[in-house]
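A common beginner's mistake is to predict each chain separately and then try to dock the pieces by hand. The better habit, illustrated here, is to supply every component at once so that their relative placement is modeled jointly.
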Amino acid sequence: MITISILGAGKVAHHLILNILEQDNLKLQQVYSRHKNKVTDLVTDNQIITDLNLLEPADIFIIAVSDDAIAEVSKSVVLNNAFIVHTSGTQPIDEIQNTNRKGVLYMLQTFSYDKEVNFNKVPFCLEASNTEDFKLLDTIAICFTEKVFKISSEQRKVIHLSAVFVNNFTNHLCSLAEEICKENSVPFDILKPLIVETADKLQVLSPKDAQTGPAIRGDVKTIERHLEMLKDSNKKEIYQIITNSIINK
Amino acid sequence: MITISILGAGKVAHHLILNILEQDNLKLQQVYSRHKNKVTDLVTDNQIITDLNLLEPADIFIIAVSDDAIAEVSKSVVLNNAFIVHTSGTQPIDEIQNTNRKGVLYMLQTFSYDKEVNFNKVPFCLEASNTEDFKLLDTIAICFTEKVFKISSEQRKVIHLSAVFVNNFTNHLCSLAEEICKENSVPFDILKPLIVETADKLQVLSPKDAQTGPAIRGDVKTIERHLEMLKDSNKKEIYQIITNSIINK
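With all components supplied together, the output reads:
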């Protein structure tokens, strides 16, 4: 039985906790949160601490807090020889302080409170400062997922940047489309099958080969008509710059 | 048995033909293509014509050619009282010439030759200049899909513009991410589960509620680090403008 304590109570911590509780060979030791009521009801009250001085020994401490708070939280783990990992896509492994047993467990997925995540398909990007601890991380990760990768801090930065493009930015473009629909009394729902197919297609085709639309066809008339329809200067600018980027490839 | 002739041999025509051939109560009458070898082998040679003067009567003629060619192709249908529809997202119904029986059958989906499409989930946006013809279009559409919508030419323009954002533009952002991965020797495949989850999430959450990432968190440090990593001025500009757009919402 591997004992795990989670330091943090945000979205990543929330989904991690839910998944740890489902595993037979993992034990949730404690959860640290500044606000007790932020932790899911599935965790018993005596497992939740609001003071890091109350931290008990565990096989691994997983810090799931904002990037800027990782160093500070890791410093507050005053237990001897603790194995401490963070879950950030952007911070290097050395952001962990006050221990030689450092690691990273970065789940390459987007987490929201209201959407359950199938961990089985989530890529776990692992890094550890020594081989034994890497093995422990690996043992934990394969409980959750079939997709485990050994990823360096440098590689992880690249993956995180790419993830911003394929997730955060694409989601925002959908948000702009929803606004366009609302402004024109068209139901956004009609676009949902297209959104799914756009993603499904990229499981079998490279995005370069999957590109369709007026820009790649050089259909100047349609592009002009679209720009005319867009009254809002922000949407117009985004339309123009991405269209140019497609044309110039 | 409804007889259908397809005028055109591009991607939309290709997928339409494949799906008509699978239907028991639809009959593919003829396919018009300037180049005989562009039509799938599943269509027999004597069904393919390269001259519109050889067009036989059919219950409906579906024009699936580039937007600019619709008017010209429709004029070349010299049969009396023909019901002619186009498949364009952007052109109004009146782009069809030389007949009073006009219509539109716009499939809101992205089509590539190498990717089979499950028509059952594709929204069919229908429009016709008279009620009887709309009924015929509807009868055809429900053979293919469970999602049939009556959509005016004005609404269709809005849907098409929105589709450019949720499909063409998001696909291009994935293409940029693939370049970033390649330049840094990280496998793009690792991002594929995230791409699928990004789309899946939007089936249950509005894109506004689904937004995550450094921009929505106001995480200036990460944004600065990302901009530093992007050497290419085009990617940098796109990163900056979409990030600002997220922040300003």
